[in-house]
Every structure is written in structure tokens, then in C-alpha cells.
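Allow me, if you will, to draw on your knowledge of protein folds for a short while. I have a record of one protein: its chain in single-letter code and its fold written as C-alpha cells. I should value your view on which stretches of the chain appear to form regular backbone elements. Thank you for your consideration; the sequence and its C-alpha cells are set out here:
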Amino acid sequence: MAQIKLSNLKHSYYPNPQGPEDYALKEIDVTWRDGGAYALLGPSGCGKSTLLNIISGLLMPSEGRILFGDSDVTALPPDQRNIAQVFQFPVIYDTMSVRENLAFPLKNRGAAPDKIASRVQEIAEMLDVVEMLDTRAAGLSPDNKQKISMGRGLVRDDVNVVMFDEPLTVIDPHLKWKLRSKLKELHQRVQATMIYVTHDQTEALTFADEVVVMQEGEVVQIGTPVDLFERPQHTFVGHFIGSPGMNVLPCQATGDHAMFEGHEVALEGPVTGDGGTLTLGVRPEHVAIGESGVPAHVTKVSDVGRHFIVEAMVGQTPLKAVLDHGAPEQGSEVRLSFDAAKTRVYRDGWIATQERGA
């Protein structure tokens, strides 16, 4: 295992890129510590697969370096990087038994038979597949096939990193939570460096200790799931993470207050910088209905079981609030207040308010 460092990494599929728009990866500087659980999160086309292929050695970056520990592996082919990869679709041999599938990576590297046997047994116990070790893989259900594919990635104890590329895409929704929890449990037991690539925020936030959020070839924030929810550094993070996502509202701002649809709103702290387009960001969970605040017209109320999602209009601007109880009726007039400690201004998408006391 090793620390993974991406230094000044850029990549373009064009032979002579002319500007930022020609780059699939604009500039990436990320360090993943040895033994950590990480997620690479973003929508389709944001550069996740390009970055994964560069780390695995299937693609040479246009610029920058990849370091595994102190070793520069930028120019090394995949077979010399000592990595394991689990793909969207299970990569197993249907004609082999589960035992033979799990043993194959070790046997292929000339491991001793006793080590192969003990390691296969250990991984089978972790995956809860001991009873099917002698079953042919062709007869397994899709979720069990993906378990075996995961086991093949984990059976070696000498890899630098285990990478998961959308591993639950083809799994039935009611089985996904089982495999997500199993994968988290496996990481805690084997302590290998793991990078999980996904467009699904639930998968990323439940698996990872730290999440790298990407948009259009850029890393827009790196942080714990709590960091990403509580203080998004970019409006994209606020919108992409959370259900519903953060309200992003047009505003003007001076000092530690913003003007939204003609009403003054208190902020977490003073606005910094000049110029650009300003927006007000507040999560629906931090919007409340009370006796005072911004006047709004309720357009829709959805009971989703755990809470209510209230959709309202303030002037010409729609926004959402999440309430645990006391939801208003559709069509009613209400007052909305924003939690000042959780309300901030963004300039051209990037956070532009300073936390009080920071």
C-alpha cells in the first residue's frame, strides 16, 4: 500500500490543446493517504474515468506526475503499478468455481499454495461467501458475482491501491445497500487504500472518509461528507450533494448582509472580494417558517415520510425548505427565515463569505 499523489495533473485528448476548454482534466492536485477510503464523485463527463485511467496506467497524462509513495509511476504500465481494480460489470471466470476465481490473482503471481488457501478463506469469510466456494461462478446472482469481483480485487495484500469504478451500477437497488455496507466493512478490516468512483452521492458519502467532488475536469472541493454538506465551497457542490440540493438564489451583498428579492438576509460573515456574479446559498434544511422573515407563496408541499419538502416562490425566485413538522398548506402565504450561520454568498460559484471568528 502507498500514499497516492497527483501533482499538477492535466490531460487533453487533443494533440495540441489551445486552452482550458480543450482539457478533459484542467489541473488536479490531490493526495490520498495510505489506507484511506476515498470517493471520486461527479456527474457523467466530469473527468472521473479519465482520472481513473491515468492512475491505473491505461492513459498517460498530458502534464503532471503520479506518485505512489516516493515512486514516480507516471510512465509505468498498469502491470508495474501494483493496483487492483473492480469494474461496473463483474470480472470473473464463469467456468471457474468461486474458490478458483478468488485464488486466480494470487496463483497468477506464483504465490505459495498454503498462502493462497488461507487468503481465499479469509476473503470468503469477509464476503460471506464461504458456503459457495465450490459453486461455479456462472450460477451466481449478479450481487454475488460482484462480491466475487470485489474479492478478486482484495485478495492480494500487496497492492498500492484498490480502485472501484461504479461497482454497483448493475446491482438491483434493494441489494445496493447490502454491498455498500459490506464494502465499508471490508475497508475497515483490510485497511487498504481504496478509491471509489461514482456519480451517486449516496454511494460516495456512505463509503468514503473523504470525497473528491469533480465538475468539468476540475476538483471543486475535497472534504468529509459533513464538510461537503455543511459548508460547500462551490455552488455545484451544494447543488449536487443533498436531496433536495442547496438553494442558489440571485442577490446583492455588502458587509455581512445580502439583499434577496428586496429583503435583507443575514450571512455567516462578511463578503470578501469584488466583482463577479453573486448568489445566495442556503440549504433547504436551514430554511424555516415563522412569524418573521422573507414573504413567500407556497406552491407545493411533498410529504416524503421523514419530513416535508416545501416549494415556495419569493417574488420571481423559487426555493425549497425541508421541515420536520408543521408544513403549511399549498397556496398559503408564509414567512421564511434563513439560519444566518448557514447562509453564505458565492461569487462566480465560489464561496465568498468568511466564517465569523475565522
In short: The radius of gyration is 24 Å. The chain has a mean pLDDT of 90. The longest strand covers residues 294-303. Residues 234 and 350 are 5 Å apart (CA to CA).
